[in-house]
Design a protein that fits this description.
This protein is of the alpha/beta class. The protein contains 12 helices and 20 strands. 45% of the residues are buried.
Amino acid sequence: MADLTCDVAVIGAGTAGISAEHNARKHGARTLLIDPEFAGTTCATVGCMPSKLLIAAGRAAHGARKAGVFGIGTGPVSVDGRAVMKRVRDERDRFVAGTRKGFDRLPEGTCIRARARFTSATTLELDDGRSVSANAVVIATGSAPMVPGPYRALGDLTLTNETVFELDDLPQSLAVIGAGVIGLELAQAMARLGVRVAVFDRAERLAQMRCERVHDVLKDAMAQEMALHLGSDPQPSEESGKVRIDWDGQSALFDRVLVATGRPPNLKGLNLEATGLKLNDKGMPEVSEATMQCGEAPIFMAGDANAMHPVLHEASDEGAIAGRNAVAYPAVVRSDRRVPLSLTFTEPPLVSIGQGPDESAKIGTADYSSQGRARVDDENTGVARIYAAAPRGRLIGADLFCPGADHMGHLLALAIQQGLTAEELLSMPFYHPTLEEGLRGALKEICRAVPLHLSGDQDPGSPPGG
């Protein structure tokens, strides 16, 4: 007989796991939430929040340096690296403390501090010697940084997103390996804080941007703040206490190297082989995006662990879906997922929504290099591309790299999810002068391409004065 029994056992107390446990309990299940540390979510501890704190510091330094364009004199701008990193950790710790308080509010006996491994599809063995029997299990173990061997060999000279925020001071120079979301965000933040930064990636494209036009503008903007070595094969070594990077017949020394080459699912030690699930060559089971179910088993996988959509709001949604279906098993319910929305907190922000451009899409473009509000704020860099389907001009996706894209992306995601057409979105009020107003030209371009005739009471041009 098992030491612990429950209706739903959730392995992992991150965003997806917390959501799964809560929704399963809300639907009447007896739950266990199993985690070795209960340290807090990835977002709060080593992801979203500390990175945004570093980005905010970089934004402040950047703004101070360019204040002269407005006639504001600041004198020489200095960055106190120790103060920057102390604030990052202090505020990070406040976010983490808030997450941990949530565990204290769970029913007594829900939280089990241990590592779990499967002994069958519905039984677990804990590293404290106890066993668990459940009607269904949710895997929400998150992801972990992938550090290739040559970088592991550098020891403390190598940083990941899980260690970079523990620096006492900013390095003078930093090599960033990987030009994805994490690498690009942290590279720009460090560069704006006065760190000499070089970014290396074997791929030719930054942040996996799907639109060529947007990527070109993104690349040009990033190249003004840091060295970009795309399509390169960097080779690391240690030299005189620093990191030496060799690539394409060149070499350079850096104080530290930040490895941002991806965060694969954290499934090590789960013993998934014991579940009877069919696993691929990476040890992953097939997971339904609509139900989070693994095959036909009473096992569900949510959040970064399934490697589908490694962003917080998706992890929360997936946890809720998994928790409900774990209770309902075998009568699982398919869920309609929200329109895909991803955001990279570069400056300006980089946003992708819904479907990308294809041959059948009607495309509207908004150039922010001369947009009125963007020029007022001296942020006139970037472009927005909006995609629509014929024959009605229904909005299906967008890619943006422009000021305000993090907010306008939500507007467009709402329009896409509601099935609005370009003409219908144009019928909404756009205040002048705003960044949102800049989208009108792109929407009108779609209407002309479909083609649709705009309502006679709409201004076919742009407002005077920008």
